Amino acid sequence: MNASKKNSRKLILSDPVKRPLCLRVYPDPVLRKKCAPVTTYDRMIHDLANDMLIFMREHKGIGLAAPQVGILKEIIVADIGLGQICLINPKITHHSGSEKLEERCLSLPEYFLEIRRNTHITVSGFDPEGKKVKMEIQGLLARVIQHEIDHLHGTLICDYAPLRKGGGIEVLKN
Ligand SMILES: [Zn+2]
Fold first, then answer.
1. What pLDDT digit, counting tens, does each position of 148-174 carry?
2. Would you tell me which CATH number, out of the four given (3.30.565.10, 3.30.420.40, 3.40.50.150, 3.90.45.10), belongs to the domain 29-160?
3. Which residues surround ligand 1, an ion (CB under 5 A)?
């Protein structure tokens, strides 16, 4: 998920030694695939989570899910300015409240949609070291986490768009 209206498409990581991640953009089929849970917490997962955080910031995003960089694993990262979060195998165990707000997505550049989501969630999962974590989250961060977990199931913001006559999706464009 991204906050700014202008999306940078730069694909350069700050550490040139690492393999650069590549942003997957709709309708790339990888965005529709279901991710597999992480079962081994090794150096590769740790480095990938770090790279995703760097990549997200370079693209002015506030959230990123692994399939957006072509990796079908249950990993999401987020940072709305209150500290970075990396969640592996995240599951929402409780949710309440609802609010409709505009959302954007790095993988659907130039599109935006108003989406109703829960305002309060409890999410559990693991950190990159494999330590179990449980967080109660509200507001914008709760929205970002719900958006990123959607990506792990192949769900995109355009799926929330009202159906058009004839079955097509209506996507608002800038
Ligand atoms: Zn997204």
1. 999 999 999 999 987 655 544 545 444
2. 3.90.45.10
3. 1, 105
